[in-house]
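Incident review: delayed structure delivery

Summary: a single-chain prediction request sat in the queue longer than the usual turnaround. Root cause was a stuck worker, restarted by the on-call engineer. No data loss occurred. The affected request and its eventual output are reproduced below so the record is complete for anyone auditing the incident later.

Affected input:
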Amino acid sequence: HLRHEGPTCSSLSPLLASPSLSPKKESNLFKMDQQAVNKQIKQMVEFIKQEANEKAHEILIKAEEEFNIEKLRLVEQEKVKVKSEYETKHKQIEIKRRIAFSNEVNANRLKVLTSRDEVLTSVKAVVANELGKIGEPSNAAYKDLMLKLTVQGLYQMMEPAVVVRVRQSDSSIANAIIKDAAAQYKSGTGKEVTITVDKEYLPKKDDTVNPCYGGVKLFTPDFMTAIDNSLNGRLDVVLAQKLPDIKIALFGRSATRRHID
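Output delivered after worker restart:
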C-alpha cells in the first residue's frame, strides 16, 4: 500500500513567501473590472437598440404593406362603386333617350294619322256633298233610287209589316213609291207586305248635328229591328268596305305592312 502524503513545508514555502497585492494595485484591478462591465453593458444596450430598430423597421414595413393593401382594396372598391354608378346613370340616360325617341315617334305617327284622318274626312265630305245633290227631291233619278233602296230593305227584313222613315222633304216621294215597292217585293218573294210611312222624319240635309242626305230607314212596327238604307248609311258601309283601297289610292302602300287584305 502506498500512503498519500500532504505537501511538505518545502513545497509550500514559495507560496507563503509570495508578497500580497498592494491597495493601489487592487484599485486598478477594480477599475479594469468596472470598465469591462460598462463595456458589456454598452454592448448589450447597443444590441437591444439594434434589435429594437430592426423590429421597428419590420413593423414599419409590415404596416406600409398593410396600408398599401388596404389602400388598393379601397381604391378597387371605389372603382367598382363608381363603375356601378356610371352604369346605372348610363342606363337611366339610355332609358330616357329611348322614351324620348319613342314619344317623338308616337307624336309624329299621331300627326300622320291625324293628317290622314283629316284627308279621309275631307274625302267623305266631298262624297257626302255629291250624295246631297243626288238626294234632292227635284232630281228625277232620286225617286227611282228611293224605290230601289226601299225594296232592298224589304228583302233584308223579310217582315209582313214594315215602317218606312224618310226626310220630311221626301214624304211625298215615299208615299208614291210604297205600292210599287210592295209589288216588287211580292213578285220576288211571293209574300205580301204592308208598308207604312212613319210620322217621324229623318234629319234634314242642312241639320247641324246629323244631316241626312236622303234615302230610307226601315223598321219593324215595334221599332226593335231597323235597316239603315239612308244615303248616309250606305256611304258608311262603302267607306268601311273600301277604306283600305281608298288609303292605298291616297297614301300609297305601307312599307311596313306585309299582308294586304
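Verification: The first helix runs from residue 9 to 17.
Action items: add queue-age alerting; document worker restart procedure.
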